[in-house]
Design goal:
The two termini are 37 Å apart. 34% of the residues lie in helices and 19% in strands. It has 2 domains: 152 residues, 3-Layer(aba) Sandwich (Alpha/beta knot); 55 residues, Trp Operon Repressor, Chain A (Orthogonal Bundle), CATH 1.10.1270.20. It is built from 8 helices and 9 strands. The longest helix is centred in the C-terminal third of the chain and has 19 residues. The chain is elongated, with a radius of gyration of 22 Å. The structure holds S-adenosylmethionine. S-adenosylmethionine binds next to strand 5.
Length: 225
């Protein structure tokens, strides 16, 4: 079973996300165990404080090294981890290839930053990979952790109803996915492409591939190069 330990100052932000849909189903099926850690539980300070003023001054607080170290040392003493991932705007951009790679791991720790980020010494000592979910700044790493976990968990064998489904999604073969339709075949003058109703598998596959290429050329030509 895959295990993901998520360290956060507001784990409740992620609870609902993991209690629904594919992530919930994967967890119920014993494919993944998501374990939340409230960083405040690892603070020895009054009011369970986990942040402090930045050395050198300036706006914003910094997540302090002691509670993070305490939490990480405890987890690392309990089991071996394949990755300790910190979510940060200056990290490696999350793409399908990285999700595929991470889905092969067994144990991972996700660190969600907040405020101005975490003390750099935590990154230097513990973090094995830094991941960004896009060129914009979020208030915290919780959404980035949820996005990354979702992209990984849906790839675990047994997580999706039909295992081949993830393989036909965008990016897996370097192309965007073709258009999809469902019943009714006619709606207010709009009809479904004839080939999809033909029952001819080879023609349907060829049409889908052609549509994928056309869509990729139009929307994401960078993928083709
Ligand atoms: N001062 C940081 C900077 O400019 O790079 C931004 C800190 S941000 C307000 C707080 C936290 O949100 C970060 O430490 C990180 O964990 C998370 N975060 C924000 N944007 C993110 C992104 N695009 N990808 C992943 N995590 C992000």
């Amino acid at each position: 079973m895959m295990r993901i330990d998520i360290i956060s100052v507001i784990p409740a932000l992620m609870h609902s996300f993991f209690e629904h849909s594919i992530c919930k189903r994967a967890s119920d099926a014993g494919l993944v165990d998501i374990v939340f850690h409230d960083l405040h539980d690892f603070s020895l300070k009054k009011h369970r404080q986990v942040d402090d003023y930045p050395f050198g001054g300036g706006a914003g607080m910094v997540m302090a090294i002691e509670p993070l170290s305490r939490c990480l040392d405890q987890l690392l003493s309990e089991r071996t981890y394949d990755e300790v991932i910190f979510f940060t705007p200056d990290g490696q951009l999350l793409k399908q290839g990285l999700a595929n790679q991470l889905s092969l791991n067994t144990n991972m720790i996700f660190i969600c930053g907040h405020y101005k980020g975490i003390d750099e010494r935590v990154r230097d000592k513990y973090v094995t990979r830094e991941v960004s979910i896009g060129d914009y700044v979020l208030s915290g790493g919780e959404l980035a952790a949820a996005v990354t976990a979702d992209a990984i968990i849906r790839l675990l064998p047994g997580a999706l109803g039909d295992e081949s489904s993830a393989l036909t999604d965008s990016f897996q073969d370097g192309l965007l996915a073709p258009p999809v339709y469902t019943r009714p075949s006619e709606f207010n003058g709009q009809s479904v492409p004839e080939v999809l109703l033909s029952g001819h598998d080879r023609n349907i596959d060829a049409w889908r591939h052609e549509q994928s290429v056309l869509r990729t050329q139009k929307r994401r030509p960078d993928l083709l190069s």
